Amino acid sequence: MVLSGFGALLIGLARGDGQLALKGFDPIELIDGREVPGERELFIDHGAFRYLFASEENRDLFLDAPERWGIQWDGACGRMGPLSGMGAPDRFAVWNERIWVFASDQCRAGFLKAPDKLQPPDEAPPAHDDAAKAAGQALLEKAAAAFGDVAALDALKSVHLHATLEAVSGTTLYEGTRDLWFAFPARYRFEESWGGRGYGHAVSGAAAKRFSPEEELPLGAVSTKVALREALQQPLWIARERKNLLAVPAGSDTVDGRAVELVTVHAAQHNVTLALDAKSGRLVELRFLALTSRGYAPVVRRVTGWQTAGKLTLPVRLQEVALNGLADDSVKGETQLELDVALDEQLFAPPAK
């Protein structure tokens, strides 16, 4: 998976609040192709950064549209994606009249090779009429029934999945954890921790935040949309939120010789296609566009682990399908599943102002 706290940890993305951005260059002038130093007394603190301006006119222009003129993706690395760790605010590039920052020189070079392939694509919903919507919802109900007692599924207040991880860099083995929290309705949190330091993001309704050991930051429009899309890629989220999703049949296929029915769900300008066992309705795999080493491209994630808790049997492990079969998803050991545990609301709450 390209977007992970482990990657952010390895490339050392720590920085302080209010750090001077862009080596002190005026962002308006920078976008126009000129490296013009700003004046110390003409500044704006926006998000995590302090911007300097060469004129009051430029400062006012920035104030009118800070997400247009400021560092994109709330300071995340332009190569690693909107939900990655922070880029260095003095390692920047201008593309498409926007400013991007990067975690390393290699990330900057990789971005500039094909920046258009690294932009989160907006997808139109699949074509549908009322009959198609009804058929799509029927397929989602079939998938939900394969989880067990549908009433128990719909009564779920929270789910916590905890997995242990391992990754190798050179000859060094690193161990970490990955936690997913679902609190219904409409709250989701992803966190990875390496060496006891957690990085991740959380969604609460239409708002989202990113966090690290140093800070919590509210996410802007693009990053929030990407966080909502990640939630839509989670089987538990789809099953529990199914009545709030557009779903449209997408034909049939086979997976490992097994007949499957396809249904595409849509939210946050993102499509995820589910492959359901044609007989039982059990979820077999998910298909969608995601950030890869080649930029945004189609990926397939196979459900490879289930656990039973009470009246429900839930998917707890996904593995990405490579050309030569299932790829290692770095999870080792069994994933721990907890249902309806009391969750601290601060897990999802927006950062304090």
Q: TL;DR of this structure?
A:
The protein has 353 residues and is α+β, with helices and mostly antiparallel strands. It has nine helices and 19 strands.
Question: How would you describe this protein?
Answer:
- The chain is an alpha+beta fold.
- The chain has two domains: 5-118, no CATH class; 130-347, outer membrane lipoprotein receptor (LolB), chain A.
- It has nine helices and 19 strands.
- The chain has helices at residues 5-10, 27-31, 56-64, 66-69, 105-113, 130-145, 150-154, 221-232, 235-240; strands at residues 19-20, 39-46, 49-53, 88-95, 98-102, 158-169, 172-183, 187-194, 197-204, 207-211, 216-218, 246-255, 258-267, 270-277, 283-292, 295-309, 312-322, 325-326, 331-339.
- The strands form four sheets. The protein has a seven-stranded antiparallel sheet with strand order 11-10-9-8-7-6-19. The chain has a seven-stranded antiparallel sheet with strand order 12-13-14-15-16-17-18. Strands 1-3-2 form a three-stranded mixed sheet.
- The two termini are 32 Å apart.
Order of secondary-structure elements? HEHEEHHEEHHHEEEEEEHHEEEEEEEE
Could you tell me the CATH topology label of the largest domain: outer membrane lipoprotein receptor (LolB), chain A
Major sheet details: 7 strands, antiparallel
Total count of domains: 2
Work out the radius of gyration. 22 Å
- Give the helix/strand class: alpha+beta
What is the CATH domain class of the largest domain? Mainly Beta
Distance between the termini: 32 Å
Number of strands: 19
Could you give the order of strands across the largest sheet? 11-10-9-8-7-6-19
Tally of helical segments: 9
- Detail the poorly predicted runs: 1-17
The helical percent reads: 10-25%
Q: Overall 3D geometry?
A: elongated
Average residue-wise pLDDT: 91
Supply the CATH architecture of the largest domain. Answer: Clam
Strand content: 35-45%
